[in-house]
Write a structure and sequence with these properties.
30% helix, alpha+beta, single chain, 6 helices, 14 strands
Amino acid sequence: MKTPFDVKELPLSKLEALGIYHDQQLLLSPSQVQALLAGRRTDLISLHEIKGADFLIERLDARLSLRRQDSGEVELFIHPIYKQPRVHPLLNHQETQELISGKRSFIGKAVEQEEGRSTMVNIEYDPLTKDFVSYDVSKVQAPDRVNGMLLSEEEKSTFRRGEVLELEDGTRLGIALQRLMGYYLTTKRWCFRCYLMAVSAICFFGALLRCKRTPSSSITERQRLIRRFQKWRAQESCGTGPKISLPGRQNLR
């Protein structure tokens, strides 16, 4: 799967200075590395003993991201947790408050480029760091399939614009930059299965507790209950989650 950045382009010297690259090993989970290579932000990472020219930070919780400069060089960005929400130059006060409160999930803005051209940029609020993150709509790659269903060009266009895409089976899909995967995906079927699993687990542990409290209950009966629950859980958790097939990853910042 093609991503905006290659693993060979990772700024290892800067990652080493942050303490997350040591002895030729990157001390990040595969999902964190994938987020970096896809142009998204990682989850919060605890950085220790960050040294600068005239400062030393013993610990800093922050998210990381990569950005390609005009020169082609890949630069590492640190997104710390701010005490107060940051100000975005493209947003007015009302728009800022609507994003922070969750009233709106994103706000689109036309940004002027060279030669009188403009590009559409969507802006979202990152509640983890209390700052704003934006992405170029034209660079978003829409999925080909969701839960095995082939998306139409109109549905792909809806997803690229940042709007919530709702399919016939109740699946809802949308871009969410504050999440590690860069999108959210929910289905009515999946929520119902989670409900059934929770109810079944409660019933199982209730039956197991009754076995323990009843002297006549044998160890074999308890073991039988445990085996039945484990078998059912394995069947339910095998391939039942929502699935998305992406041709590539969004260059999200």
